[in-house]
Amino acid sequence: MNDILPDESGLWAFFEDTIRTWLAAYGYRNLRTPIVEQTDLFVRSIGEVTDIVEKEMYTFVDHLNGENLTLRPEGTASCVRAVIEHNLLYAGPQRLYYSGPMFRHERPQKGRYRQFHQVGVEALGFAGPDIDAELIVMCARLWRLLGISDVRLEISTLGSTESRSVYRARLISYLEKFCDDLDEDARRRLKTNPLRILDSKNPAMREILAGAPRLFDDLDEDSLAHFEALQRILRNQDISFEINNRLVRGLDYYNRTVFEWVTDKLGAQGTICAGGRYDGLIAQIGGKPAPACGFAMGIERILALMGENGAVGAHAIPDIYVVHQGEAAAEFSWKVAESLRDDGLKVVLHSGGGNFKAQMKKADASGARFAAIIGEDEVVAGQISIKPLREAAEQIRVDLAGAAALLGNI
Ligand code: ATP
Ligand code: MG
Question: Ligand 1 pocket, 301 CB below 6 A?
């Protein structure tokens, strides 16, 4: 779990500002849910036999009432819970997003943290492939806005629940032939959740899986048509993609479209954004059946990728640093600072005493463009002396009123 220090938070702020405008441009509205939910919600939605539920959740008993609670490991379950609880779909389909910390007890490494941050976008109540395409097209725009170019799109389809169960049986009978070579995870999952095995990162498993039957060959007609329509829109929008038949997401609720945005620049943790359709989840959690589609992106990984490209956040650099000497000047400097702030300037008022020379050093180190110097003369005249710190220009003396406008012209 990381502290995000002031030197880094400039980039976070840039990212957050960018996504707010970006989401508004597509008509997505913010939904904020609690960070803690009842454990059962995640077990039911993400799936009992998944990495997250089996070994990554921060789960605890609330000793005050015996409730079993979990720090959210992802955002979709909470979003769907809230949509059902507040009957939001009654008003029609919803375009929503959330942003905030998620918690997974994974092995910490570069690009993988136990508290990390996601922005998630969910379109609920929409059945057509056009909305899958909208989600992908909006991601492509975001990469442009953030200056990210070294990222590729992988898409696939998981078909319907029915076609998946046909495939499941075929996969089990294939894997059973390698029973002795399967690793512990795979052997355990063979009967409970064999599709999860496809997601294995173990090279020995990957070798076995290379010859496995493909889910693709069991697809139902409707899913295939949906997938083809999605590809058509993507092509029309000039979005390049690869079809990756091996794409199975780490959560059980997906069906039909799944996609990932992947980069080679971040080593093993290369997926910066992932999502897909989850048409069964709303009903499964107790709502009136409604289709849905969404994705989540890992903010740390996106910022790391931006960092690779040399992006640094703009820090809150003051416009002007006010130095002052003597009691009357200290008093007047308050008035000066507040008046400049009234005019919209970012102002740091020196604190901690010291002579003018020492204070000017602080002014310089602050990065401010100007120093405002207040001594006895200035107090008497009701004026301020302004010294440009970044350019070779003369120090000038100006009236307080209108000083801000003048600074804009220097
Ligand atoms: P991965 O395959 O990398 O484990 P995932 O499939 O578990 O990812 P999702 O649950 O789909 O991830 O979450 C969406 C995105 O959130 C990921 O693509 C990734 O960018 C980010 N993410 C997931 N887990 C972490 C983590 N522990 N630390 C940082 N970012 C993460
Ligand atoms: Mg994971």
Answer: yes
* Per-residue pLDDT band at 407 (split at 50, 70, 90): confident
Give pLDDT tens digits for 341-399: 999 999 999 999 999 999 999 999 999 999 999 999 999 999 999 999 998 889 999 99
For the chain, which domains are there? 6-160+220-308 (3.30.930.10), 320-409 (3.40.50.800)
Locate the ligand 1 atom nearest the alpha carbon of residue 199 and give its number: 2
Output the residue whose Cα is nearest ligand 1's atom 23.
298
Distance CA 163, CA 220 (A): 6
**Does residue 271's CB lie within 6 angstroms of at least one atom of ligand 1?**
yes
Q: How many CB atoms are closer than 10 A to CB 115?
A: 13
Q: Report which protein residue has its CA nearest ligand 1's atom 8.
A: 271
* pTM summary value: 0.90
